[in-house]
# Entry
Amino acid sequence: MESIKNLQNFELIDRDYVVVTAQNHLLEPIKCGCCLMDYVQGDYQKNLENFDNCMMIYNKKMNHIHIQCGSKFNYSGVNLDYKTQFFKNGDTKLYELRLEHSDTCPNRIYRRICQDQEMPIISTDKNIKLAVCMALFDSERNLLLTRRNSNLRVFPHAWVMPGGHIDLGESLEEGVVRELKEETGIQIDSMTMKNGSMVFFHNTQELQIEPFYAFESVSSFSIDHKNPPKGGHLIVFFRVQLNQKHSEIKLKLQTEEVDGAVWVDKSHIQRFLNKQDGDFQIKGIVPLDSNGRNQSKMFNLSQLFPNYPNQDREGISKAHNMAIKYMLQKQLQQISKL
Ligand SMILES: [Zn+2]
# Structure
């Protein structure tokens, strides 16, 4: 009887939404309002802010992602039909990356409010959505950042790396490549090999599309014990380096979503990370139309950094800021090991 109940749980889920499940919670998806870091650590007292070497298994046909940190996945109580479907050949891929959330995670703040007031923790009926982003570097290690259109409801004029939601049936890599093309016009081609794995190309160069970081992103404006945060995303960040200089890469910006773009020099990012004073001008572009006609424009580094929203009502989104910081720290560690 138990197994039938479990299968029904999964069938109730809208398949257009991602289901994020963590270890010991594989029988039910994590809902918005519950902190992912709390779930994966399994012990609320620890209050950990990140996990290195976090394992994620993603099934692209189901849009389900299983998360595990520390111990092994435990599928002992999981319905056999579900397990068979989940692990079907070629549909599932394993990732190992760092999982982190904001030090001001609204979900965790909500839990603490409930605990302090001795009120029950209410989770919403909404599933956490899955999103992907691309840290795209040119051959000279400049990073592409785009500015979200000022008309957008969420994070208008925030600076981000290109990305968006995963569609049902897509692998994470296919999703991030599609979003990159839609938002910037940069085409990455793919080929499926006989064993089902995908190879990606740009300008005849084979690309490594490497996942390096995952962030629990929660947007919330007012939290009290009756109002848990309603929206939540798990954002998986990928990293790619092209073999062209950015001056040779033509951008065709998706004007409804993007109203500016810059390639940021690594020294500029380091400067910001080290919180050095002084400003810089960076040459970027703004779109003139949706056909790829652009105009060059000078942006100030202080427009891009620090966190959104800054004094210009711009700045980099917190998730993207933390992903960039982690990526650069990791690179420095690798260099110092040589
Ligand atoms: Zn959290």
Notes: Residues 318-337 form the longest helix (20 residues).
